[in-house]
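Standup, Tuesday
Yesterday: got the pipeline producing structure tokens again.
Today: sanity-check two examples.
Blockers: none.

Example 1:
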Amino acid sequence: MHSALAIGDRCGRETEPGKLGVCIRDLETEEELQPGDVVLLGLCNEQGVVANGGRPGAAQGPKAFRKAFFRLDAACLGPLRFWDAGDVPADAPYQAFLDAASTTVSACVRRGALPIVVGGGHDCSYGNYLGLCDALGEAPAVIAVDAHLDMRPTHEPSSGNPFFRMLEHGLPGGQLVEVGLVPWVNAQRHRQYGEARGAQLHFLEPGLAWASVDQVEQALGHFQSQGRRVLVTFDLDAFEAAHAPGVSAVNPWGLTADAGLAMAQIFGACPAVACLDLMELAPPLDPDGRTSRFAAFLVAAFLEARQRAK
């Protein structure tokens, strides 16, 4: 278990005074963690994206995220201690990504730390879910911000199946909430499957995208009142291409950056959130680095709200 948290490369460290990069500690063993700590893990996996017919590039997501995130001002951390567990490299076997996510998330949560996982295909979120199941002894609630249902009925590598796999594993449908869904890019059979399982599926309507923020706040409040811990997962393709062009499936219409940042603050302020992930950042499709910076802003907004809530 001890070596499992020292995953691999830790690239993109910023050394300029006052930047986040100088505040980051390299994590070697779980014994270093204290309650309230934050741990970053990168999953350089795009095998599921390619298998699902998506545009490749997500394997480079963690490195680009670090480069953007570590250049931000350190003030958003406040007194929080931030650790870097490194990346699972792109040439790792597929199951290694799920196993590393599960092991690391479980170890962090059992010690009272918060894991932040950056990918990588959205199928990697299934590993985060398994880690929470292990640490909590029960399934977490899941709130997903995504343009797609990701309920493709397969257990094979696919960026389109994480919520199918969670539901088939035993996640009660009422504990899954998806917001930001685009109605025209989701198969009716996947929607019917989710509805039959009792999942709460919130589809966007033109001119009403900000309603997603209210849906997130209501769902999170409900789960917190039930004593549920929550996995929050952002698929960056939920956001309009103007804000997030560097994703596997580019989205001409979706959530705005402003709505995303508002959601991140809501999530960060809530102690029920046990794990945060951001998936499908694809730097080769992001020539000006806009999507990487937006992903970094989402985490900064989350952390700033978290340290203010303490």
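Example 2:
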Amino acid sequence: MKHTLLTLTALLLAPLPDLSAADSPNTKATAPGKPAASVAKTVFAADEQKWTSLFDGKSLDGWAAEGGTAKYEVKDGMIVGSTVEGSINTFLCTKQDYANFEFEADVLCDKELNSGFQIRSHVYAKDEPQPSKKERIRKAGEIFGYQCEIAPAASGNSGNFWDEGRWTKWHDDWTNKPAAKQAFREGEWNHYRIVAQGDHIRSWVNGVPCADFHDSLDKSGFIGLQVHGVAKGKGPYSVRWKNIRLRATE
């Protein structure tokens, strides 16, 4: 009898198996002998391999300046763009075109300066009237395309898309987007994320959802880093970029 009581007590005190993980439809079995943490690390490494760095931290290989005469150089692992008096908008552009992708970069811009990330953009091959204003002639070598805005915080436009050098309009209506208007932090590094998939283009600034619109004008084109033109007697001002990377999507 004493032996029976001890056996029952042992059974009652034994820990029950955890069935929650096994019953969960979202739980994947871990290979025998391979810890879950190891599997997660492998998946993360595979995901990271899909990203391509567009800047090696040492040179401007793979990039070319277009438009104006602003200066671009590499300093302390960053691309630094600086204004030149009287220059029109200048862009440091990738030599490769991209269609569907996810793009990320960090930017620090002088508060007196306007900048932007061009995506799916192009160069005018010859002098042409600007579509939004026919009397304005865009010179050969000028840039046009979608520009994700980098601007003084007071403008409330950083993260929206301006149609640079072509239709000169905002692509998204931010009337009811107060969080997007306040996402940019002046005088600090700001993290931008852009996703272009078919005609659907979206942006995030410091993790805050910003632009979200559909437009079919450009299906592919280069990535560009803008130094906005400044009038004579102004500047010099600078904008800095780092951690510039992209991964192509279907």
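Quick observation on example 2: Residues 1-30 have pLDDT under 50 and may be disordered. The two ends are 71 Å apart (CA to CA).
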